[in-house]
Amino acid sequence: MDDFNIDNAIRKVPDFPKKGILFYDITSILADPPAFNYCIQKMNDLYANSSINAVAAIESRGFLFAAPFAIQNRIPLILLRKKGKLPGKTYAVKFKLEYGEDILEVHQADLNAGMNILLVDDLIATGGTIKAACELIEMGHGTVTEIFGVVGLPFLDYEKILEGYKTTTLINYQSEKTLAL
Amino acid sequence: MDDFNIDNAIRKVPDFPKKGILFYDITSILADPPAFNYCIQKMNDLYANSSINAVAAIESRGFLFAAPFAIQNRIPLILLRKKGKLPGKTYAVKFKLEYGEDILEVHQADLNAGMNILLVDDLIATGGTIKAACELIEMGHGTVTEIFGVVGLPFLDYEKILEGYKTTTLINYQSEKTLAL
């Protein structure tokens, strides 16, 4: 299990979504059952002895890893979605994107003070969306116990914006391989 | 297991996304581990003796049910996403919404002629998006073996547009309870 090479299962697409960006595509993991299973089992192993009792997923690729984790661990799955998608009463947080800003929402009913939450996304880059997700969870008095991403791009400095949170990724990519600015 | 009442786990939100519509919200299933597990186990039971060897999920709530099914059955998970989200070479199908139209895409590399596919979404209403998804899968020479939704709204006539496909839902709601037009 530990010698599985997840790098081989991640498709690298140059110039997406725009010229000069190398895109790390996790859909090729999903199409490869041993690779996808490896990711979920690694999550199970990482958090087996933690106090985590709920998992929160960032729309929409975060759903793909958080949903099997929720099922295997029999814990609630909380969705963090873009503005206007959740029908119930929500908390909302505005955050900056490269151009402009966006809003992330969570159902108020899905959060409570007893929750030790694993926050999941597929890829952690600048950490801006993840930080907004942490703020949302804390508005509902939940605790962000751990943050998980399949892929990390630490050269984009997410560790700085997520200081104080425990963040784990299965694989990191470095600057020279990912951006030709 | 069979006497689990999934209706209790589905939140009904009046006047969402607009006045007069009763919205069936499956996020309350996700927040309830026995309810979410019931759905995935029902999917496992339904298709245990089928020829299904891949599962396709419609963005983004379809991801939530298809991902655990893919993991538990060790089969490929294929994403059907809105235009511009998939970085690789895609097939695309245009389809009508209530107002205007939308485009659904799939990675060409994810499909092949040997695939007997379970197509998954959270809710089947008019069937328009599901029909577009079937066309996409067939462009890649895959076979849509079964269609699954947690919730069905048969009074919106999806059975007509999906004629020739085998469609299963865990619960159906009838007109008088859902629309006050």
Write the layout of secondary structure elements.
The structure is a homodimer of 181-residue chains.
Chain A: E1 11-14, E2 22-25, H1 27-30, H2 33-46, E3 54-58, H3 61-73, E4 77-82, E5 90-96, E6 101-107, E7 116-124, H4 128-139, E8 143-152, H5 158-161, E9 167-172, H6 175-178
Parallel strand pairs in A: 3-4, 3-7, 7-8, 8-9
Antiparallel strand pairs in A: 1-2, 4-6, 5-6
Helix pairs in contact in A: 2-3
Task: Determine the CATH topology of the domain at 51-172 in chain A.
Answer: Rossmann fold
Q: Could you tell me how far the N terminus lies from the C terminus of chain A, measured between alpha carbons in angstroms?
A: 36 Å
- Quaternary structure classification: homodimer
Principal-axis shape of chain A equals globular
Provide the CATH architecture of the domain at 51-172 in chain A.
Answer: 3-Layer(aba) Sandwich
Given this structure, which CATH class of the domain at 51-172 in chain A is correct? Answer: Alpha Beta
Strand content of chain A: 25-35%
Number of helical stretches of at least 4 residues of chain A? 6
Mean pLDDT of chain A: 94
* Strand element count of chain A: 9
- Write down the Rg of chain A: 16 Å
SSE string of chain A = EEHHEHEEEEHEHEH
Could you estimate the helical fraction of the residues of chain A in percent? 25-40%
Structural class of chain A: alpha/beta
Biggest sheet strand order of chain A reads 5-6-4-3-7-8-9
User: Which pair of protein chains has the largest interface, and what are the residue counts?
Assistant: A-B, 39 and 38 residues
Low-pLDDT sequence parts of chain A: none
> What does the largest sheet of chain A look like?
7 strands, mixed
